[in-house]
Amino acid sequence: MAQKVLMKGNEAVAEAAIRAGCRLYFAYPITPQSELIEYMAKMMPKVKGTFIQAESEVAAINMVYGASGCGRRVMTSSSSPGISLKMEGLSYIAGAKLPAVVVNIQRGGPGLGDIQPSQADYFQATKGGGHGDYRLIVLAPNSVQEFADMASEAFDLADKYRNPVMLLADGLLGQMMEPVEFKPAKTEEEIEKLNKQHYDWCMRTNEDGDDRHHHEINSLELDPNVLEKHVLSLHEKYKDIQKNEVRYEKINVKDDNEILCVAYGTASRIVKSAITELQKEGHSVGLVRPITVWPYPSEVIANSITKKTKKVIVFELSLGQMVEDVKLAVNGKLPVDFLGRAGGIVFTPDEVIAKIKESL
Amino acid sequence: MQVIAQRPKSLRDIPFTYCPGCLHGVAHRLIAESMDELDIRNKTMGVAPVGCSVFAYKFFDCDMAQAAHGRAPAVATGMKRSRPDMCVFTYQGDGDLAAIGTAEIVHAANRGENITVFFVNNAIYGMTGGQMAPTTLPGMKTSTSPYGRDADDIGYPIKASELLATLEAPYYIERVSLLSPQEILKAKKCVHSALKYNKEKRGFTFIEFISTCPTNWGIEPIKSRDWARENMLKFFEIGCFRDKSKTVEGGK
Amino acid sequence: MKADIICSGFGGQGVLTIGKFLAQAAMKEGKKVSWLPSYGPEMRGGTANVSVIISDNDIASPLVSNPSILVALNQPSLDKFGPPTQKGGVILVNSDMTPNKLKRDDVDITYAPMSSIAIECGSTRVLNMVSIGMVIGKTKLVKYETMEQDLRDFLEVKSPELLEANLKALQMGMEYFG
After folding, report:
1. Closest alpha carbon within chain B to A216
2. Is residue B126 within 8 Å of B93, Cβ to Cβ?
3. How many domains is chain C built from?
4. Which residues in chain A have their CB less than 8 angstroms from residue C33's CB?
5. What is the pLDDT of residues A194-239, one digit of tens each?
6. Count of A-C CB contacts under 8 Å
7. Are strands A285-290 and B44-48 parallel, antiparallel or unpaired?
8. Cα(C7)–Cα(C73) distance, rounded to whole angstroms?
9. What is A248-357's CATH number, 3.40.50.920, 2.130.10.10, 3.20.20.70, 3.90.1200.10?
């Protein structure tokens, strides 16, 4: 068994990305994700990879577009205000059907906001974010170990569906140290194989004769009929993703739950603490933790409601974004209540307990 | 029968989408001929901009990316770093390169990114229908400077070649003209040099073409070249601003 | 077993390192751990603090609002985290920088001249090791041997010339309680 090391989430996800075969990384410094870019600056040269501190997040995401167009495993990262700047590029990457991984270490907003943990970019991450009719696959870790594990998963999903994948974390997960155990690093031969999986569409060297190709990395199509077909094909892909890739965790979800909680990422850890306390007092409260926030585990939430359940309560580090998806999932069968904090404040287990007790 | 002229291999057999009298076709041809001569067609990738030449990704017979407005140098950076053994070029207009993409071109040049940038300057936005460009001349009327460009209000045109020549890293910067056959032949030499330096991985290379836009200037093609000669060349001087193969320090 | 620890002091006093060494040693002894710093402008000269949880079980929330162990290296830290410390909790105070005492008699509080002890060991920079030694001496949270090994592993690579002063500080901190 590999040895456990104590590491920040920001560093762990960077190390895991390199081990997963990421050899190109482009980004711009921003708190609270700077340890990630610093780790890449230090480690990429050691694996003969490319690290560029770009002139802006806009430039960084377009470097990702170019590298991904060449079929290489490529990543960028930022925090909320910088992610907004990347949205233009993400729309192009989604439109051109390119695989790429983007990490968002969310902080308080809107605007410049602050640098404390937040989950206020949920809408931006899960509803597209940039212009046009597209989706990102969005994975939301709640521990440093899971954050690291998700790096390789994100690259695999991006390659499988030729779609950008976002790791949606926050300042707490980025800054926190926890023990982490890494998977073995991919060998150069394995990485070479990964690069070649996209040879039928990516930009690369050419040859004369019958095998000559003309690969275009493009999201432009002026004929509305052709563009509609393209968007429909994207949505066929999204349906497959919704069918195959929903991930979630059920914590203490039982037939006798009086209350069903829904929370993801950092918020889910606080809610888990609260549920454990309430259990000691004899209350049965369950928690569904979406691990993919797009595709969303709507059915799982709907099916976790039993005859005993009185209410669904959503907990978020925002003033209510995911709660809309929970309401769609519950579909009016039960009241859906909400507790959120904004501005980078993380609610305490006591606040969560008090909120749940209102309904017990 | 003897073939004395034909389409360069590096251009695909697809009709251009440019207006009659437009010089984009000439610029494309110079690039394609040079790719043929340098035998780099099979190891070249290009980036098309947003603007009239947005469809350039269809025209060149090599793998191509279409970039967001102004971002071509960043996209090219990602491509070059992914495939360092290939030649990468961008093809950009004046709105793309000198307005919305100012940051990307300056920093790609400043990194000495091993790419070639072809910059077509015709002092106007063509595709969107004749709006003011960052290179529109003082007093020049466009649909968004209907009373003539007022330099006191909106500033003077940006001289991209001179601007980039203030940086240490670029290897080769030259402004050329497409306004007459003689000038086109001279431009061809410069395009060839830029791609040759690219092939030899010498550093960042930049060619600025002085061009025309008969349609949006509202001047017929031949007269538009005269107009450009009389007006644009006075402001945008033709010449080499950096060639490190000739001088260590570079400059004129 | 679950210890909720807050280490707090001025930026530069090494409070984040105190937390990191405690968490790392506990991890090596098979415990579950989390380490969560305050981050942002206060790191650059103001007060800094870190929440560390060491537990036999999985750690849900990594936030510590009511510490069971508080290391306060200056007055603002004691003023801020002294009151919310758990009843019966352990508080270790650097008396050199804390003129005002905490008005509570339901906690196990020790005022020790940690800065002076550090200087005695050779440098104010080993203040954090004095604190770690005191945490071990007082609570037996982790084994001294584990900590010593971690310290050796860390410094022998990074700056071997500082090893002696650090080891001495660790030991003097631990021996403060006899």
Report:
1. B64
2. yes
3. 1
4. 6, 178-179
5. 999 999 999 999 999 999 999 999 999 999 999 999 999 999 999 9
6. 56
7. unpaired
8. 8
9. 3.40.50.920
